[in-house]
Fold:
Amino acid sequence: MAHAVISCLHANHAALEAVLADIDQQGIDTITCLGDLVGYGPQPNEVVELIRQRAIPTCQGCWDEDIIEGLNACDCSYPSQLAERRGHLAHQWTADQLSEENKDFLANLPMSLRRDRLLFVHGSPNSQHEYLLPNMDAFAALERVETAEADTLFCGHTHHPYVRELRDGSIRVRVQEGVASGGPSEEREINLPVRRIINAGSVGEPRHGNTNATYVIHDEQTGTVEIREVAYDVERTCRAIVESGLPAIFAWRLRHGFEYAERADDASHVCER
Amino acid sequence: MARWALISGLRGDLEAYEAIQEDLRHTRRVDTLFVLGDVIGPARNCDALLSRLQQPRRGELRPQCLYGWWEDQLLAERGYRGGRRADALRLSQGETAVDALLQAVDPGHMGWLAELQFGFIELDCALLHGSSATVEDSLGPDSSPLLLLDRLTRMEVNRLFTARSGQQFSIELTGGGIESQVRDLEGQRHQQQSVPKRQVIGIGAGVHYTIYDPGTDRFDFLAAGSRSQERARGFA
Structure:
């Protein structure tokens, strides 16, 4: 069965409408959303309400969490002080705009969703704030999937869609218990399982280098993954950003499809709070 | 280069601490004493040990202390961890254990306990109570090598000294690798990665402690009072 996975909608109603239309055109009726319904974009209520109306199973993203819990993430969430200031502005604006009913919906989203051996999270199984970048240490990436007892991990948060397969892994160890350096030891080797990480990219704030919204279609039977790009009315959202009083840089980013000077320094960092 | 002594899990046992200090007095070239947490516990009053750690006697090594799982639970219950309380202790051992822990430590020590750090980085070694992920992470000889490698990678160190399990062990990562294939909108890339040579060392608890020599990368697992065994292993 083919199913679609969307993520990082970021209050961009035009992009969400276009992606849902594209999914409908493929004849797919199982959709999972990996969170970040709000933040940066100008239509938080409209986006939350469309997800609720379509009854799309959704897990909580970092923005969804922070809007409810307050800005309590450590500064690892922002790659620069400038980005942090702009993020705080967007946070305040979004918190002011969201209806209580929609806040309540975001507050009650689960951290993860699971279907058999498929696990759906926003950032990583550890935290909504952790970035699983495509080039992160392969063993660390595999550990995230394996510790979560999944075969395939679906994530978002990076706004960069990718499919990563980790295979032919092994680790050899020498174990000593209760004896000093040079004492008797036991050699072991473990073979690591094949696992996949599928990043759904971003519907509402693409950062892969062009303006198209991205999402993925996964076929559980064949294992195939299609990364889909969907054009939408970018200017409509950009105008709404400027008219709403949000920082104009958010519109600039949408027009260019990448996050200017904003790249996480330490993708492996886990927010401790 | 001088050696380190690493201890943990005293849980208020001043006699065990004194036995270790006595051992160290007779062990040459140990110049740094690290205490990797769990200096308190609910089983006995911990005030005398806490006072001694803060005010060493003349000639004793001054300990460099971290907080462990028990300190974390006490700090949480006393309101030093935001909204979090000693939920893990409450869940695992019940309300009686929480009350016993509160009784075991005079509130006058809370300021000192609250200033203890999560971990130390010394040279290319991480000194932690649990792991780089969390203070409650219990690493041992049966831990998944994948998990151990992750905990090492998170701190970008070659050696991780841990205390939470209370066991004395060494696990060296000696080889292996993994292949990774990434496909995105720009195409497909293939990567190969080897397992770096790294090590996790469990230092023991109570009178069981570890001596580590960063100059030679040698470690020795000891029990306070067994100095003759250590000499037999070649330390001069």
